[in-house]
Amino acid sequence: MGDDDASLFLGDGVALYRGPGGDGSRHAHHAVQVACAFDGVPIELELDERRLTATALAVPSNLPHRLRTGSRRLAILFLDPLGHDGRRVDALVRARLGESLDAALGQLRWPAAGAAGARRFVSAALTQLLGDDGPRPGRSLSPPVAAAVDHVARTLPDPPTLAAAARAAHLSPSRLTHRFSPEVGLPFKRYVLWMRLRHAVAGLAAGDSLTRAAADAGFSDSAHLSRTFRRAFGLPPSALLSMRLLDDPGGRDADDRSVQVPGPPPI
Fold first, then answer.
1. CATH superfamily of 143-233
2. Three-class SS of residue 74?
3. Selection from 109, 120, 137 nearest residue 12 by Cα
4. At CA 225, angle to CA 224 and CA 226, rounded to 5?
5. What's domain 7-130's architecture?
6. Is 38 left (phi over 0), alpha (psi -120 to 50) or beta?
7. What is the pLDDT of residue 249?
8. Which residue from 43, 96, 129, 162 could staple onto 69, CB 3.0 to 4.6 Å apart?
9. Helical segments of the chain, H only
10. Separation of alpha carbons 246 and 122, rounded Å
11. Per-residue pLDDT tens over the stretch 117-164
């Protein structure tokens, strides 16, 4: 994998695009978006009547916007706004809407290629944005929550339910709900959704058709998968096919999976 090749890292409630920029159309998506250019080429952001030019900026959840940049070293961090970190970043971004983050993220460096480099970048970006404002969930799970997470992985593509996961964890559904989000960083239903998205993208990267990838991930059909992806990231899953996928199973390094089909960057 070349240092400037386009890649997409997928974790629990987080995604990181790393590669060249482009000229995006106006759109909105559910994820909070933080974009940084590392070659000095500015990013242009349009928000209604406001425009911002910077090398680091952010867009809160569900806000219509347009991004354009000729940067060849662009990193875009996507965070689920219902997750532990995403919720706090979304609040911060809304409070500083339309402001440059050049100073706040000035110590960030271009992420190294691979899943480990992506994880380090995500951690560094969150630290610079949030500082010491409360602990972030780690990868160490208690045995009951680990059992629930394992249940989700074993159940897909069938729909994992909170009740069944609670039985696997030997907890009541309410008790599992209380423990799951602080440890995993996402509510149970959002975690299941992200696992389905990761499963679908892994299938696409392995060469599956959109229909097959959708079915294997538990979506009703390819249109359901496409709608879900657009709501989350503002683009269809087919746009990811030109990128190298870096999955993050349990925080461990994974083999890169890729196919070479032209597609636009997710801006």
1. Homeodomain-like (1.10.10.60)
2. strand
3. 137
4. 90
5. Sandwich (2.60)
6. alpha
7. 53
8. 43
9. 84-95, 115-130, 143-155, 162-169, 173-184, 188-205, 210-216, 222-233
10. 13
11. 999 999 999 999 998 664 455 557 899 999 999 999 999 989 999 999
Instruction: Encode pLDDT of 17-61 as tens digits.
Output: 999 998 888 888 889 999 999 999 999 999 988 899 999 999 999
- So where are the chain's domains? 7-130, 143-233
Given the structure tokens 């995006």, which residue do they identify? 24
When computed from its CA atoms, the radius of gyration of the chain, rounded to whole angstroms, is 18
pLDDT at position 235 over 60 = yes
Tokens of 66: 């347009």
Residue 182, Cβ density class (10 Å: 0-12 exposed, 13-18 middle, ≥19 buried): exposed
Structure tokens at 149: 């997470």
DSSP 3-state helix, strand, coil percentages of the chain (rounded to 5)? 40, 20, 40
Q: Is the pLDDT of residue 1 over 50?
A: no
pTM for this prediction: 0.81
Give the whole-angstrom CA distance, residue 36 versus residue 71: 9
Tokens of 221: 């059909």
